[in-house]
Design goal:
With 158 residues, this protein is mainly alpha-helical. It contains 8 helices and no strands. It has one domain: Double Clp-N motif (Orthogonal Bundle), CATH 1.10.1780. Helix 2 packs antiparallel against helix 4. InterPro entries: Clp_N_dom_sf, Clp_R_N.
Length: 158
């Protein structure tokens, strides 16, 4: 099982870096990891996200709305409603604080052999503040319920 998780994590980190680059971010953050998980072919986590209407496109829309509302709260608006596209850049290799916290909370306390993709999702869902919790709230997702169902999807004792 450890090898399967290592492959999953490697793929999520690669996709997360691509998501961060597309967003114009200098670091890989929790939202980029969540987008990567939504794009992964791993059945368990994808089904959990799908169950609350969060496929990759819906999640991207929620994150864009969170960004738009954050700018509006700061008094910034865009004529025509379109946000400018991200500035192209290099693929980030650094992991940002929100992604570090998600990894520590989800994967850190789990024994190496017991790690599963759902642990990473749990780590992301455990974040109490920041972009991901705000975007999930905007999407109408009950984060606590999704975390509970994610926990229940794990074998007993994990």
């Amino acid at each position: 099982m450890a090898r399967i998780f290592d492959t999953f994590l490697g793929s999520v980190m690669e996709r997360g870096a691509d998501e961060a680059r597309r967003a114009g971010s200098a670091t890989i953050e929790a939202e980029h990891l969540l987008l990567a998980i939504a794009a992964e072919q791993e059945d368990g986590t994808r089904e959990l996200l799908d169950s609350v209407g969060l496929d990759h496109a819906a999640l991207r829309d929620a994150l864009e709305e969170e960004f738009r509302q954050g700018l509006a709260a700061a008094g910034v608006s865009f004529a025509g409603g379109d946000l400018p596209g991200p500035v192209g850049g290099r693929r980030p290799s650094k992991v940002g604080e929100s992604a570090k916290r998600a990894l520590e909370r989800g994967v850190g306390p789990v024994g190496r052999g017991a790690r599963r993709p759902a642990h990473l999702l749990l780590g992301i869902l455990s974040l109490k503040a920041g972009t991901v919790p705000r975007a999930l709230a905007l999407a109408g997702v009950d984060r606590a319920d999704l975390a509970r169902r994610t926990q229940e999807s794990l074998p007993d004792g994990e």
